[in-house]
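Sample intake sheet
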Amino acid sequence: MRDVFCRSLVRNAAGPEFVFLTGDLGYKALEPLRDAMGKRFINAGVAEQNMICVAAGLAKAGLRPWAYSIAPFLYARPFEQIRNDVCLPNLPVVLVGNGGGYGYGVMGSTHHALEDYGVLLSLPNMNVFIPAFDSDVETMIDRLMETSHPAYLRLGLSEAPQGITMPKYAPWRRLIDGHGPTMLIAGPLAGGIIREVAGMPFSQRPSVWLLSELPLAAIPAEFLDDLRRTDHLFVVEEHVAQGGVGQMICHRLLSMSQPVGRFTHRCALGYVSGLYGSQSFHRQECGLDPASIVSELSVPAEA
């Protein structure tokens, strides 16, 4: 997604209010944006707390700053500055974290973002955007260029399934229909799961929904109709359970007095074996890989 991200920002580089800050990252990827923006492209160095303070100051002066880094360096290291300087005064700073979930694989836990949107959404005024496909990034950037609130864009690796046409972008999208469980996915995991379930019989195939913006807005009536029919909510996300989409949707449904007969939640479990590996390795350990998801779909409900 980083290449699409860069190209989309280059198209907006002429805007005089747009300023881009990077924490000494983006080499061999963001050079076109650097060349297009000139002095409005700022390498803040390995000083993320200061980068967020500078971004907040630029926003206070009427500019539209974007701050970019590897995800945990962006939201965890400067958390106090995000809270005090960006979110409490409600400034339009866009935080861009690359490598959501286990995206940085063998580089280990210091580079993994397993609690990012849960942590950030605990702060006032924050909005989160989680693209699943390259095409999502372009639409999100157009919206983020106009935002008046703090925002976090979680980038990953686009895993769009070949030969399957995805519906037009929306915060909530039904990607594929079926008479199996109602499945709600956040992020790029959706692509691999869609590839795996597309060939299932319609009677068993889940109705797969993609959620791309947080906090939760109004739940679509079509999703609620699906859920009433199936009585089985199946949430998948590359994020820990605490503060994740699974908890958010359950809280919302309970507040609506909407019962759910069966709830399945597949999420990041940390480091099951105590080892580090590729993103695929960690997903498999957590049961987030497509094969494990399909296997879970075939598990009958307990009597």
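Comment: The mean pLDDT is 93. The CA atoms of residues 68 and 96 lie 5 Å apart.
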